[in-house]
Backbone:
């Protein structure tokens, strides 16, 4: 397995075409793109720490040795639990995305669906997938997962869109492979991944075969362009020394739009092409894995950071023993651990899917509940953190002020409490990154907007069975 330094070194061979803030930038030189590189490097390094070996690595039956868990296909419910543990651990250590997370979940969904596709159609999709996975594992590559299409008018099906490229689609098929066009948006960390695996963002119907496509491409493939997000945090990182930022090393969750301009993909990297019937299964299997990890695990790791920071803020200002503060901290813990419990339940109740495939997927209901709960719970947790830490979280001067001979002594004098002003400002800046940052909408929409989980829950629940129970006890039979 690669170390962080080896991963960074391997990026020197990649030539991604990246735009950020209206300029073309170099992945290894731009301060914002470097936060993604650093976060990935940390995830590589965590796999080498003996303390985390059980969580961060797994034994691969494909290559017969240990692999980074981000490239592992779950073989039992224990694997599912460790996968959720990895999401918590990496969130706690980074305060931003494990940028290999979506890729890991796409690979697991494809392992399950390509097995079924090969069984049903005879096309060697699973053989291709296993060969590709073996290549990833042998080289310990960072993989991002591309699911969300640009989508255009949400009320129209893909073929009805005025701009046909708003859903990724096949525009040509040859004996060597396929040619694809379109764009995937909000792609976490794709700029710094060695590979990206693309799947359809929705279930396709007969007549929509060109949009039913799953494939992998290497970073820097001809015709691929990345257009990065740009936020006030990007601007701040451009002008401020790193140490004064809310998450100095790893920044906020960085995404980009990936544009495919007639990109050629050889058949050995195509894992579904035209089989509309299997697209619904693929997206729903991906969703159930990703919602367990994104909702019940990763955000629990984030919540640990926010709760820890809120408790520190209370101690810094001497209100940590006040009953309503204790109450609010307790409420934050309760919200976070409820989501955590849902992730554990989703893993423990997971099963082999489809039977005979050897691939284990989490329970659908608990995975969806985990994500739905965290969408609401995380806003609540941030609300209480803002309450406890006070208005300083948004009204604070920069810690850089302390370097100024005129304003520095004033800031030091008036913001010092049980701790020096420097510590108080640094903690407030850390909390600003969460409570006044990108994480609210990020948590809401990541792994699908909550309405998608509501629809899944309603569809998955056997209301007839519940009605029968009620009728029986109420004497209505
Ligand atoms: C921080 C972050 C990281 C992400 N990382 C990744 C990633 O790595 N890979 C990836 O593939 N995606 C990623 N995403 C994308 C994420 O999956 C999407 O944001 C999510 O699925 C919602 O899609 P959207 O943003 O296009 O919003 P929309 O789909 O436009 O949703 C906006 C609103 O419209 C509603 N809506 C949309 N369509 C319909 C409809 N047909 N009928 C009724 N209501 C509708 C939704 O319920 C919602 O209320 C990321 C998102 C975020 C915020």
Residues:
């Amino acid at each position: 397995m690669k170390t962080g330094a080896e991963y960074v070194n391997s990026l020197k061979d990649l030539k991604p075409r990246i735009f950020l803030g209206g300029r073309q930038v170099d992945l290894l030189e731009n301060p914002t793109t470097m936060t993604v590189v650093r976060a990935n490097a940390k995830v590589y390094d965590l796999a080498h720490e003996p303390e985390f070996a059980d969580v961060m690595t797994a034994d691969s039956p494909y290559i017969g040795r240990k692999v980074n868990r981000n490239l592992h296909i779950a073989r039992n419910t224990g694997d599912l639990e460790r996968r959720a543990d990895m999401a918590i651990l990496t969130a706690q250590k980074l305060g931003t995305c494990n940028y290999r997370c979506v890729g890991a979940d796409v690979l697991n969904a494809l392992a399950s669906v390509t097995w079924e596709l090969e069984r049903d159609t005879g096309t060697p999709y699973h053989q291709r997938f296993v060969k590709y996975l073996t290549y990833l594992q042998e080289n310990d590559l960072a993989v991002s997962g591309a699911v969300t299409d640009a989508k255009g008018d949400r009320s129209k099906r893909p073929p009805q869109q005025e701009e046909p490229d708003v859903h990724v689609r096949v525009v040509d098929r040859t004996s060597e492979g396929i040619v694809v066009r379109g764009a995937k948006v909000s792609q976490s960390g794709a700029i710094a991944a060695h590979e990206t695996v693309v799947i359809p963002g929705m279930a396709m119907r007969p007549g929509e075969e060109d949009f039913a496509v799953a494939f992998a491409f290497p970073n820097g493939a001809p015709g691929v362009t990345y257009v990065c997000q740009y936020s006030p945090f990007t601007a701040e990182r451009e002008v401020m020394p790193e140490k004064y930022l809310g998450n100095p090393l790893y920044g906020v969750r960085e995404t980009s739009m990936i544009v495919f301009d007639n990109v050629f993909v050889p058949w050995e990297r195509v894992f579904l092409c035209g089989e509309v019937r299997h697209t619904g299964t693929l997206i729903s299997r991906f969703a159930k894995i990703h919602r367990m990890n994104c909702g019940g695990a990763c955000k629990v790791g984030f919540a640990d950071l926010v709760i820890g920071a809120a408790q520190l803020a209370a101690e810094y200002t001497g209100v940590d023993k006040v009953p309503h503060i204790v109450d609010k901290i307790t409420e934050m813990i309760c919200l976070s651990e409820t989501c955590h419990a849902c992730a554990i339940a989703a893993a423990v109740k997971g099963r082999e899917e489809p039977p005979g495939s050897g691939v284990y997927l989490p329970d659908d209901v608990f995975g969806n509940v985990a994500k739905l709960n965290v969408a609401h719970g995380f806003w609540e947790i941030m609300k209480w953190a803002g309450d406890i830490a006070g208005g300083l979280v948004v009204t604070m001067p920069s810690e850089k002020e302390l370097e100024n001979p005129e304003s520095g002594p004033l800031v030091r004098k008036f913001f010092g409490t049980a701790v020096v002003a420097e510590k108080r400002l640094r903690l407030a800046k850390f909390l600003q990154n969460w409570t006044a940052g990108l994480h609210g909408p990020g948590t809401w929409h990541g792994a699908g907007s909550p309405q998608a989980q509501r629809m899944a829950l309603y569809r998955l629940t056997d209301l007839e069975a519940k009605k029968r129970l009620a009728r029986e006890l109420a004497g209505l039979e």
Summary: The domain at 281-462 is CATH 1.20.140.10 (Butyryl-CoA Dehydrogenase, subunit A; domain 3).
